[in-house]
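WARN retry 2 of 3 for item q-0093 after timeout on previous attempt; input resubmitted unchanged.
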Amino acid sequence: MPDSNFAERSEEQMSGAKVIAQALKTQDVEYMFGIVGIPVTEIAIAAQQLGIKYIGMRNEQAVDICAEELGNNVKPAVTLLGDISAVSKQLLEELDKTSWVYPPESKWWKSLREKMKSNEAASKELASKKSLPMNYYTVFYHVQEQLPTDCFVVSEGANTMDIGRTVLQNYLPRHRLDAGTFGTMGVGLGFAIAAAMVAKDRSPGQWVICVEGDSAFGFSGMEVETICRYNLPIILLVVNNNGIYQGFDMNTWKETLKFQDPTAVIPPMCLLPNSHYEQVMTAFGGKGYFVETPEELQKSLRLSLADTTKPSLINIMIEPQATRKAQDFHWLTRSNM
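OK item q-0093 returned
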C-alpha cells in the first residue's frame, strides 16, 4: 500500500523541464532559442506544449555584464554598470524632470557637423567609383538604394560592419543589431534569426537584412540551415573580399601556391578566393546569388526582396585589398591585446 501511494505521488510530480517551461511562460516569454541536447531538448518540448515557440540553433552564444570591461576601449568620464533596460529607464526618468538640452550652437556641435559633412563627401566619392571588383562603399550604396525603410539591419564583421554603420541607414528604433564596439564575431546570424522571428509573427512582410563579411559568415554560417528550417524572412549579404580584412585574388593565390605548400606561404588572413557561399543557402532550399557587378547586385537584391517565400543569400565579390577610409582616432583600429 505505501509503495502504491509513492508511485501515485511520483506520477503527479512535475519534471524540472516543465517547471522551467512554466516559469518562462509565467514571465510572458514568447520565444526560446537553444542548442539541442540535454537538458535543452526536454525543456524545449515542455515549452512548446505551453505555447512558447522554440528555435533550435546550430551555434551557441553568450551574453554577460562585466564590470571589468568598463573603460577597456576608451577611458570614459562616467561609467554605468547595470542592466541596460533598468539603467535606460532611470536615465529617461531623470531627463523627464528637466528641459535641458545640449546647446545646438556649441563648439562641439559645430565640429561634429563639419566632420559629418566631410565623412559624407568621402563616402560618396568612394561609392561613385566604377572600377571592378567593387569596393565596400559601392556595394553599400547600391544596397541602401533598395533597403525597405522598416527592415531590420544586422551587420557583422570588421570593415563590413564599420563601413556599413555609416552608409546603411535605418529609420526606426531597435531596428539595427550589430556586434557593438568590441567587434564580437559569430553573433550576426543569431541576431538575424531572433529579429526575423519577431518580424514574422508581428509584422508579416517585414525583412531582416543581414550583412556579413566573408570571415564573419564563417563563424556561424551553418545557421543558414536554421533560417531555411523555419523559412525566416532573412536576406543574407556576404561581402566577400577573400579574407580577414584583406585577401588574395585568384591569380595571386594560384601564383603563390606554385612555390610551397599553402600552410607555408598563404598569409593567415587569406581565405579561399571566390568561395561560393551562396551554395550554402541553396543546399538547404533557399535562393543564392553570386554577383560581381553593381548591376548584378541590384538585380539579385530586387529579386530577393520580391520573393517572400524563401530566404536568400547574395554573395558579393569585392576588391580583395579594399579597405575603409583612414581613421582619425588610433583606438578605432588598435588591438588591446
